[in-house]
Write a structure and sequence with these properties.
Four copies of one chain form a homotetramer.
Chain A: E1 5-9, H1 13-22, E2 30-35, H2 39-49, E3 53-55, H3 58-62, E4 69-72, H4 79-88, E5 93-96, H5 103-116, E6 120-123, H6 130-140, E7 147-155, H7 167-170, H8 174-190, E8 196-204, E9 215-222, E10 227-233, E11 241-248, E12 251-256, E13 263-267, E14 284-286, H9 292-295, H10 298-311, H11 319-338, E15 342-343, E16 362-364, E17 367-374, E18 380-385, E19 392-397
Parallel strand pairs in A: 1-2, 1-4, 2-3, 4-5, 5-6, 7-10
Antiparallel strand pairs in A: 7-11, 8-9, 8-15, 9-10, 11-12, 13-14, 16-17, 17-18, 18-19
Helix pairs in contact in A: 4-5, 5-11, 8-11
Chain lengths: ~400, ~400, ~400, ~400
């Protein structure tokens, strides 16, 4: 297992989270140089994390001879340029979410790295939360049968930095900020080979005086018939609500990544310090998480990225995934305008074909069994349908 | 406060729940006569609940000289006839949900009781759960600001009786069975005077070999801009999932009515007896509710109905409400077919007009304040928007 | 089923809760006259609840010709006198918890009502919460095997009325106020026929400048070997913590009656109104309960009391139970002083004898089976003990 | 930051957890050689984890020239010998919990490493769970005021390996296995400088046919007046219950480390695979944890140990802590026999002196303020005590 030296581009909240992860615990990888548009922020960041060098020249960072890997933690509108420079330098590049401001931009980035033949990873942390990884494995192992529905929700009172609020720089509002997480979580559960067919989306700007949506709900229909549902908002009150629910033909999964993780604190005030990302209060009942960078997936994400580099394989989350996410978001924005289901337009589908969710009707004496229930006395109650007449009857049989 | 003697029509699960409620605790009201289509079931029901008389003639029950109130717990396709008979007899009538199989049928029932001038109550129990009643009061008191979004979810593995599965008798599938609850819960939170404008709905039949939907998700847009979202399913695994979430501009409400109410039991098996409606297992971790008829709203529902009768006022849930619910469900079914937003068609709107959710932009030195955050050092971080250029900037000021 | 007219003695918080219950929902029983030591409070109480008459003469209330039942909601030091007067009047009497300030006083009250032959009920609401009633039935049905341990916890920031804080009037501090609940909950789970043998208790006065304990933890050993553990405090921060946990040889029960019942609200402040008994905050995350008088057991408690009266049977909670509770509290106070296990002294034991919790050792080839585990491959791993040498070994066998 | 090569002694469950942690994520430290008493288990372990060498000779492992650190994951009765050998080899040594079978043994180990001057860490993982670390920091920052009570609970259906059940090899039963965790968790919350004064303990053997306790409850009184309460059991049903509760004068902390961490799964059976340590079922509702080695503290534990080595400082958990834990367990065993409070006997106290929990009485007009409550109308209700008479009164004042 190799150790990697990182060129970190960007010194915002996400740069902090990334570096905290890389430099945390017994990590073998270190940030070698940090790039910031502001000399002051770059220097402060470097001091905060013990990074040998900081620069305001992005090429200096990317092409640094001691840098093995470029990590992009910049605002959305700067991704394409940074990726192009990393590809030109022949360096592996890991880019934060969303990949592009729209699918066209994302496609260009995808083509850039593929043309250059550099390793490219899509830093979608929330697909790597330990709960999600374990849940996806359980789903793949058949624990809940076939997935019929996934709800992914990310809502909070709004982002911390000014650029997030400017749709010209980001590509949109809450969808581009938060929906990208939800979409890729959903894809991991319904299966990445399960083609997203179309999207229905409703958006609104309810609270903030901005041009872009601060609320959105969307349905994504996949080839198998499974539905992905995302709910994103910059108007949620009470902290950061980060929950996923998965329904299958034989089971159910509920995950809460933030506000209810088994850690509850009441304080009359004072002394609590930093509780959690986007906490709204400092007194009363608070709900911290344990190790944020672990529970939000950063630890497992970088592990997968660097192991993939070591092993010469693709990481779990690739630029193609980032591109698909952008394509789904584009469809969502089109749908919000047209107020109709809009197809997900992909220049190329790299997944396979996924069969329709199966419902194998069971027969009993020529009748279709709709349901079986165990009665308190041990007998079974059946609900049967006559295939000829379409009539339904109850029948009780020995258990 | 008067005592009422009830003519109970129907001996299914809902008849049991209604009678358990009426005869429970220190109730002053009693079932005087029960009607069943089957003599055997009628007699068994009567014995089970200590009811003096049972009959297979619906008129005998409705017109019984000792009966003060008619309660309809019959399958959907029998509501209209029963209501007509009760109205003809001049008796107050309480009808289970949904009122009709569609809005047209519901409208006829509404007109029947209004023409006859009889008291009519819509037995929508889930709008009366103690949690919902308290939450609605809190919302009305301003605790969460203006309501922006309500999610109401009712899912379980499918109904217990054969007729539920036959759309010809019910009017549809999971929407007509469960969505009616969700819609009226949503209306209570967004305000009953808040006109439902249009609906977008997706349905599918994923698991059961039936003609109607066993899964549905819908968005309802209200005049204020608030969105109601319902999720209903007959394919959920793990019991009965009954949850409501309400978002407002200044707060949040989460309610779990069934699977997570602070009552958790692990049993290696045996001896547990009846745990809860639609529980799927008898061993392992189980999640009973305390007093089902109280927690599901039956107790407060009948209290409101009879008090309304006493006081000569309308109950909280009226036939007009039932009609509106049917009209919304009709729009949902139309939308599922057209795959487009469909208007909610009402022959008459009895609510008023509800203003758009307000977002009062705050100004500072001519800039629009997008967000305020308290920094750890006590200073405030503002995100500001320049109304002229549309640019966003961060600014830190003294706390 | 008869209707009862109540003489309510006392107008404090508990009088409100009792009357809210009696006059709530479709109750058939009504408060006919209320007694208060203060004319003003009596009149206000009467107006609040629509009670025809109020008085400052306790005899007038008790002996009122229209009063069927006397309900005592007075401070502890006034119970004995009120019970004596009710017994003298030959009236059924229901007395709030704790019965006496100590066992000797409780024993005199028990003997008073038994000598007079009047019906007497011990108003221990928390043994009647719907969750507890269902859980006790599950335990009695064998769902968790034999009960080994019960933890009952009631803690909050301290009582609302001055007299509670004066040990001379109450008999003690947090134990007498809250421990009485816990003890009787424990007895319901371990079985009321299961003799409490001895008590070990630790008390302290940690926060409030009072002479009595504001914190206590105690262990009660029952004849079967089961342990009851109570934790009571007047120093808890965050509201009212009301939880019970029951462990059995084949299962586990966890109940949360107050702060986590599936009702969660975040409010930025304002408009919430009354949230719950002993809530500490009005903003931030709040945890209301639905119908307090139902969830805290008042509804089922009065139902049992009046049904018992109707049926000429003893209620679930009797004065003898109240006496046993006092005797256990006396032992707890003695233990806190002696710092040793103290016997529970009962002038008479009306339960039977309860056998020791059984542990039937299973044998395999002359070895004692300590544990069986299913391995991932379906085989079984056994841990065996050689009865001769006392040595333990692992053995894996086919599943 | 250095990389360490480990000599791992022991190949049981704890050896797997340790190695999974060390070899997990981007860890820089690796196991170089593993010692097992069984050649077969040693070889299998080595293959499982990609360890270059395995041996059945403990000295070979300890003295291996490439080994930087010795990690002891052996049964309790083998700790002393292994520590002596590591000390003789002058190697840093990390030893699993409990340190000794009793305080005398633990003291000898402590003296051995101190005499040899080798670095020694006590591998008490549950003091390092991310939740605990954050909670302890919050407590140290004053978030809950002064700690008054800590409850630590660890219960499950019993250990997986035969030797755990043999008190001759372990030093006892559930206390020695599980209580050691709870005690050190408690010490971290009340403050390690807060001297444990005495212990009251109740033990019983309720379910398993063994000589040692399978259930225990104990109270530990600290110098400040704080009480630590531990509950340990090998008879719990439902998985592994791992919870801590902390009460302070100004706040409350509740932590659930295992069965309720925001990850809930229902499965009709099949396909779930490994869910969690000590899960009891494979169908129905299951409650996995995300990343067990992170959530159970192993990751942060080794990070602290190796950083301490790097920095030449003592780790958070030292052999002296292990010794204190053993001394408290000894007192617990003595108390269970004597049925009285037993002093904690320490050959040397290395903490300081901790003042009694303070209760600063507030005065108002010469009266002691017992409690303040805000009334719904904004006024304040005070409960006051007259210091002369000891009488209590209510007084309402402007807010």
């Amino acid at each position: 297992m190799q150790s990697y030296r990182i060129a970190m581009l960007g010194t915002g909240l996400i740069g902090d989270f990334y570096t905290m992860t890389l430099h945390g615990q017994r990590g073998r990888d270190t940030v070698r140089i940090v790039y910031s548009r502001s000399e002051e922020r770059g220097r402060a960041f470097g001091e905060r994390w013990g990074i040998p060098e900081s620069t305001t020249d992005i090429k200096t960072a990317i092409e640094h001879p001691d840098g093995d890997v470029v990590v992009i933690g910049l605002p959305n509108f700067l991704h394409e340029e940074a990726i192009a420079a990393a590809a030109a330098a022949g360096k592996p590049v890991l880019c934060t979410k969303p990949l592009g401001r729209n699918a066209e931009e994302a496609r260009r980035m995808l083509e850039t790295v593929e043309r250059a033949g550099v390793f490219a990873g899509y830093l979608e942390d929330l697909c790597y939360t330990p709960k999600s990884l374990k849940a996806v494995r359980a789903v793949q192992g058949g624990a809940i049968g076939e997935v019929t529905w996934v709800r992914s929700r990310e809502t909070h009172p709004g982002p911390h930095s000014a650029w997030f609020w400017d749709g010209r720089l980001t590509g949109g509002g809450a969808i581009v900020d938060l929906g990208c997480h939800c979409i890729e979580i959903i894809r991991n559960f319904v299966g990445k080979g399960n083609r997203p067919v179309e999207v229905m989306c409703h958006t609104d700007t309810l609270v903030h005086p901005i041009a872009d949506e601060d609320n959105a709900i969307a349905l994504i229909r996949f080839e198998s018939g499974a539905i992905g549902q995302f709910e994103v908002s910059w108007t949620f009150r009470g902290g950061m609500d980060l929950r996923d629910e998965v329904a299958g033909t034989h089971g159910t999964i509920w995950m809460n990544h933030f506000l209810r993780t088994g850690f509850e604190m009441f304080t009359a005030g004072g002394g609590g310090g930093y509780v959690a990302e986007k906490a709204e209060t400092e007194a009363g009942w608070l709900f911290p998480v344990g190790d944020e960078v672990s529970e939000l997936g950063y630890v497992d994400m970088f592990t997968d990225m660097f192991r993939a580099l070591d092993e010469g394989r693709a990481p779990q989350e690739t630029f193609y995934d980032g591109y698909v996410v952008n394509a789904i978001m584009d469809a969502a924005y089109r749908s919000a305008k047209s107020r109709a289901w809009e197809p997900v337009e992909l220049f190329e589908w790299r997944g396979g074909s996924t069969p329709r969710i199966t419902a194998q009707p069971e027969l009993l004496d020529g009748q279709v069994v709709i349901k079986r229930e165990i009665l308190p006395d041990g007998r079974q109650k059946l609900i049967l349908k006559d295939p000829a007449t379409g009539d339904f009857v109850d029948r009780v049989i020995a258990g």
